[in-house]
Amino acid sequence: xxxxxxxxxxxxxxxxxxxxxxxxxxxxxxxxxxxxxxxxxxxxxxxxxxxxxxxxxxxxxxxxxxxxxxxxxxxxxxxxxxxxxxxxxxxxxxxxxxxxxxxxxxxxxxxxxxxxxxxxxxxxxxxxxxxxxxxxxxxxxxxxxxxxxxxxxxxxxxxxxxxxxxxxxxxxxxxxxxxxxxxxxxxxxxxxxxxxxxxxxxxxxxxxxxxxxxxxxxxxxxxxxxxxxx
Length: 230
Prior knowledge:
- By secondary structure, this protein is of the alpha/beta class.
- The protein has a single domain (6-228), classed as Spore Coat Polysaccharide Biosynthesis Protein SpsA, Chain A (Alpha-Beta Complex).
- Helices cover 39% and strands 15% of the residues.
- Helix 5 (130-147) packs parallel to helix 8 (212-228).
């Protein structure tokens, strides 16, 4: 197997209690670099990420997509460009050790984008709220009806070839990020596969699903993003 450079991007907002565990649990030897994008945190997220061995970038303007874009900009400016980018959240709800399964289809040379599907995998009871489960079902159903693409999840744990990611010209700065990537990938004819991933209760309080305002706001952005690319 040819050498592949893999870079992990972890957007993080106030995740001081979990981000270190995420970084430390990523399999040693598989990843070229782990990048935590500190997204306007007012706690010790940056300190804990650096202590665990990550490269820490600061993105002072709030926004999930904006943090991901900051990580991509960093990757583009590296002397050695990565072959694969992995995205995973900083709340320790995903299992970082499963990066092996998520990048596997790309390493095998068969796929451009891999979505880690919580719907296909094992979910700890209570790990996803009702708005999250319903929102995923509604969004994936609308994407199937409107675009004819079959997804089971909008999960943030994913891997993509770097050249494919750049070709998507990602733009969303908030919670339409995952939908934008999946829709653009399908429209461009990328080879896409979903793999089962395990999901557990996150550490700490969710800034999205943990509040009515956050859940409604994220849901609205996801739905409008779906229709935006129609």
